[in-house]
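REQUEST ID: PR-0412
SUBMITTED BY: lab tech R.K.
PRIORITY: routine
TASK: structure prediction, single protein chain
INPUT:
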Amino acid sequence: ATREPRPAQPQAAPAPPQAAPTQTARPQPAEAQPTPQQQQAAARVIPAQPQAQPARPAPAPSLPGDQLVPLTQMRRAIANNMAQAWTAPHAHAVMPVDVTELMKYREKVRHEFAEREGFDLSPAAFIAKAVVEAVRQVPQVNASWTDQGLILHREINLGYAVALGEDGLIVPVIGDADGRSIAGLMRAIRDVVDRAKARRLTLDDLTGGTFTLNNTGPLGTVVSSPIVPPGQAAIMSSESIQKTLTVSADDAIAIRQMMNIVIGFDHRVVDGSTAARFLQAVRDWLQNAAPAVPVY
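STATUS: complete
OUTPUT:
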């Protein structure tokens, strides 16, 4: 006998989906507005600058007939010193000087000086004396930079740049420059120049400089850009003396002997106003004091 099929059991209806619990949004506090002081401080912030990548040296062209000149020891030393010197931020300033009266005074005393010393009295001696007197007035240029602070040198040891033609440049040091007369500075200049050209300088002659004078006038330059030697704060160039048509304060036209003086300085140590004060001190001494200063 066949069984009767059982009636299907009723299925429970699925539970209605539960609503996700909702969170009441909290009001966000209003963003605080910067104060005027904060706005001024933000305006002074300098945005970070991308770091400059070191420039790669340009490849040297190879052309027919080229000749390789090996580096001398002096040329390699000059290259190393100049590369080190340019790690300091350089700046320059120029000032004209009327040396008409100074040159008249030199002409007056040079013959007696030559008879007594056996060599000529160069304008370089007066310029060196002016530099020494200006350093006394503006001692900030007689300094050195260090990460711990500035070193102000009590001694004034004057480096004097000597050109050696195509062989290069060397800077012997005249020690105790502030203790020398014009005649004493002239003797020292002649001594270091003669020994430099004869290649008879010692290591002691090249160390201890605190300020450098670069007398480019004999080369005929009008304006140059001297590079500060490593370890110093400034250097001054004295340019060629030339007769120039000038207009005086009372509008008179005259021919005067003029010379430019140029200071190169490490801007970490010396500011522009300090450099200008130094040039003014050099100028004033050459224009006013020099014709009255005894040679000895």
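NOTES: The first helix runs from residue 36 to 43.
REVIEWED BY: pending
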